[in-house]
Amino acid sequence: MSSVVFIGGGNMASCLVGGMIAQGFKQDKITVSEPKQDNRNNLETKFGICVTDNNQTAIAGADVVVLAVKPQIMRRVSLDLASSFNPKTVVVSIAAGISIDALQGWLGHSIPIIRAMPNTPSLVLTGATGLYANHLTQQSQKDVVNDIFEAVGYSCWVESEKLIDSVIAVSGSGPAYFFRILEIMKSVGQELGLPEGLAGNLAKQTALGAAKMASQSDLSPSQLREQVTSPGGTTERALAAFQSENLESSFRRAMTSALERSREMARDFSD
To answer: Cα(221)–Cα(113) distance, rounded to whole angstroms?
Structure first.
């Protein structure tokens, strides 16, 4: 079994480790390098894995190294590690806005690199992750990395790096879109007379049920919508209001704004 090292032991690294162990990864094959003692203690106690505060020591002999640090410090961390990498190690970055060109400039041009864009529902093992590998990455390495992210939800490969920006616009930022909708539904429910807790619970359960139906059904979202929209009924009236307010246009602007910001970040962090 491949050895996997995480540089950074924050929430995303922790949820990936938990998912991996739940899916049968051996604890003695997982190491997390984390500067904060409390975080190291928590990870060691919770998962029974190896922890350290020495990045260079951690990556020695690793098959997979996941760079789970913030974009703002990725350059410094990468440059510090560059001379310690084994060329056969595949490096995975989960930082938004850091291009493979930038990573190769810091790590070296002979390193297999994969960009991964997971989202926050990975914390509850229902994440969605987009993946892109450079041409140096072998299929066996892609398979291992795919298993890591499949352990916390759904993962898929995109054909070009620019599509990672599209993944960010759809699923990376996407949970916040739904959280905002839940906020609105809860607020309006209260205005319509429902108690705060009840309005919130109804909205959350409805979102959960709709997502479950969509994921388990062979029907498209359009077909499912048509199924629950009776002619002349309440749902038809509500959807007509969305149409008159041009909801689709609002979502398009929001998602293209997220994509544009991702590209701006890539330019900022490549300087």
So the answer is: 35
Mean pLDDT of the chain: 94
Nearest to 183 by CA among 167, 160, 165, 199: 199
pLDDT tens column, 70-83: 989 999 999 999 98
Look at residue 271 in the predicted model and tell me its pLDDT.
59
Q: Which amino acid is at 205?
A: Q
Q: Name residue, tokens 């094959």.
A: 29
CATH architecture of 174-265: Orthogonal Bundle (1.10)
Percent above pLDDT 70 for the chain: 99
User: Under a CB-based contact definition with an 8 Å cutoff, are residues 129 and 122 in contact?
Assistant: yes
Q: What is the mean pLDDT of residues 24-52?
A: 94
Residues 153 and 106: beta-carbon distance below 8 Å = no
Q: For the chain, what are the domain ranges? A: 4-164, 174-265
Strands 64-67, 90-93: pairing kind: parallel
Q: Are strands 153-157 and 127-133 parallel, antiparallel or unpaired?
A: parallel
DSSP 65-129: EEE-S-HHHHHHHHHHHGGG--TTPEEEE--TT--HHHHHHHH-TTS-EEEEE--GGGGGT-EEE
Backbone angles phi, psi at 82, to 5 degrees: -50, -45
Q: What is the pLDDT of residues 161-176, one digit of tens each?
A: 999 999 999 999 999 9
Supply the CATH classification number for the domain 4-164: 3.40.50.720
Cα gap 156→211, rounded to integer Å = 18
- In the numeric block, which tokens belong to residue 179? 């959280």
